[in-house]
Amino acid sequence: MEDKYQFAKELVLDAGEFLRQHLEDELVIEEKGHFTDLVTQLDKTVQENLTAKIMERYPTDRILGEESLEHLPLGQGKVWVIDPIDGTTNFIVQKADFAVLVAYFEDGLGQFGLIYDVIEDKLYHGGGQFPVYENDRLLPPFQSKSLKEGLIGLNAGLYAQNYAGLGDMADHTLGTRSIGSAGISFAHVLTGRLLAQASYIYPWDYAAASILGEKLGYTMMTTSGKKPAFYGREYIIFAPTEKINEIKRYLR
Amino acid sequence: MEDKYQFAKELVLDAGEFLRQHLEDELVIEEKGHFTDLVTQLDKTVQENLTAKIMERYPTDRILGEESLEHLPLGQGKVWVIDPIDGTTNFIVQKADFAVLVAYFEDGLGQFGLIYDVIEDKLYHGGGQFPVYENDRLLPPFQSKSLKEGLIGLNAGLYAQNYAGLGDMADHTLGTRSIGSAGISFAHVLTGRLLAQASYIYPWDYAAASILGEKLGYTMMTTSGKKPAFYGREYIIFAPTEKINEIKRYLR
Questions:
Q1: Nearest to A155 by CA among A120, A113, A205
Q2: Record keywords: Magnesium included (chains A, B) (predicted)?
Q3: Which residues from chain B sit within 8 angstroms of residue A175, using beta carbons?
Q4: Is there a contact between B156 and A151 if contact means CB atoms under 8 Å apart?
């Protein structure tokens, strides 16, 4: 597993370097259904590059990715879950706050996860048998704090709808933040910047963080308190395990 | 003015360095009215340091600051407007996304503004007779784009209330972002990361950006389309001047 983990880290860092080099490229932007749901040729290129490299090295592994049509069951075999650009709108508009996400599972068990904040050059990596780091800094497990001492990652739409009581929960904290990349927001939960992050997202958005979080005392769950299905889009919250009961008081 | 501008840049960079050195200090946190409106001993210390240095060098100038009780008329004399830590909650909780803000006026006319994103080590500076820079990078004037190609800085509360129609406006863009520092968000408007930023804020929060923005084609106004009073708390929007008419269609 050590070799595969090293391979994955290089894979993700290389993808980030590629994106930094192509930051000023003219973008071909397509809408996926709604005018705010965008994809560029670089999402596709990076997805293809990641897939080709994984397939070359591990030809019998399988891949679940944002820009692929395949939706595999995660429960069996060796499965990579990849998101070439998490936060595509930020990539297009801000040229910042986007990430490359990779997670690796064997028979449904997370082996390692990687979140690479490309512009900040911060790689969050570890999980399974590996300790969790931000670059070379070992991350400690969750440092206890109360809800009213913390910030919640939550976008304005979910707050306004008060979806599943997330708005009520946020009103019992110091407030909400929204940066437009679930992956980076999850990383900010891992470092303690955010107490929790809630989003309406797909498996490739939360797979890496769920593996990283397990090592440090965080739980990835649906807003109804279930284990995520790792299939289709769901309302997901990532929070310290010891805070789950308190959070559930506000959720419905 | 060149001397005063150089002095101000050093002042702000030194304040940022001081905050970086004291990032791990134990904080004495006080609530100012509501449990989410916080101030620390470091806000006060930095305010005092800035004030002392300005008074030593320019004894007859006057100072309007977040942590001072004085509320001066800006229209006359030499006035410094300072915010020692913009984004105090971020400073406490995230140890990131906070800024030191300084603006300087003579007889009501902005001479220069400074926004220092302390952790990113990015100093946005210029205005009046000085070109606007992010560190050593000259910032271009607003590059035209449509509302639906842009992101709006707006917190979840204002979006949910749809205050003054800000939510309606945001729904005609690619979405909202909220990082919890008006100063840094305004800087992100200046660099084109955000198309506009709206907040319910005080003069020390928007003074520096208003001066910087004038040089690059941006307007600071109230949500009712008036010039800010530079007195008390107001609903403020900072946007490209050429977009104001389009934005006003959504505001009420």
A1: A205
A2: yes
A3: 36, 89, 155-157, 180
A4: no
The whole-number average pLDDT for the span B105-132 is 97
Task: Flag whether the ipTM exceeds 0.90.
Answer: yes
- Which residue's structure tokens are 């990687």? A114
Spatial contact of A40 and A24, defined as CB atoms under 8 Å apart: no
Q: Domain of A170: which CATH number?
A: 3.40.190.80
- Residue that is last in its domain, among A138, A161, A183: A138
For residue B83, what are the domain limits?
A: 2-135
CATH number at residue B40: 3.30.540.10
Contact B159, B170 (CB under 8 A): yes
pLDDT of residue B69: 54
Q: Is A126 left (phi over 0), alpha (psi -120 to 50) or beta?
A: left
Task: Please give the pLDDT value at position A34.
Answer: 85
Residues with Cβ within 8 Å of A48's Cβ and at least 6 positions away in sequence, in order, are none
Nearest to A176 among B96, B178, B194 (CB): B178
Last residue of a domain, one of A96, A121, A138: A138
Q: How far apart are CA A186 and CA A174, in angstroms?
A: 18
In the prediction, which pLDDT does A252 show?
87
pLDDT in tens, A151-210: 999 999 999 999 999 999 999 999 999 999 999 999 999 999 999 999 999 999 999 999
Give the mutation candidate from B178, B195, B200 for the A interface (greatest A CB count, under 10 A). B178
* Candidate from A35, A159, A174 with C-beta closest to B156: A159
Residues placed in the known binding site of A for Mg(2+): 66, 83, 85-86, 205
Cα torsion B39, B158, B216, A93: sign: positive
Answer yes or no: do B131 and B230 share one domain: no
**B130 and B152 assigned to the same domain:** no
Contact residues, chain B, for A88 at CB < 8 Å = none
Each residue of B42-85: pLDDT tens digit?
999 999 999 999 999 999 999 988 666 566 667 789 999 999 99
Q: How many angstroms separate the CA atoms of A167 and A175, rounded?
A: 10
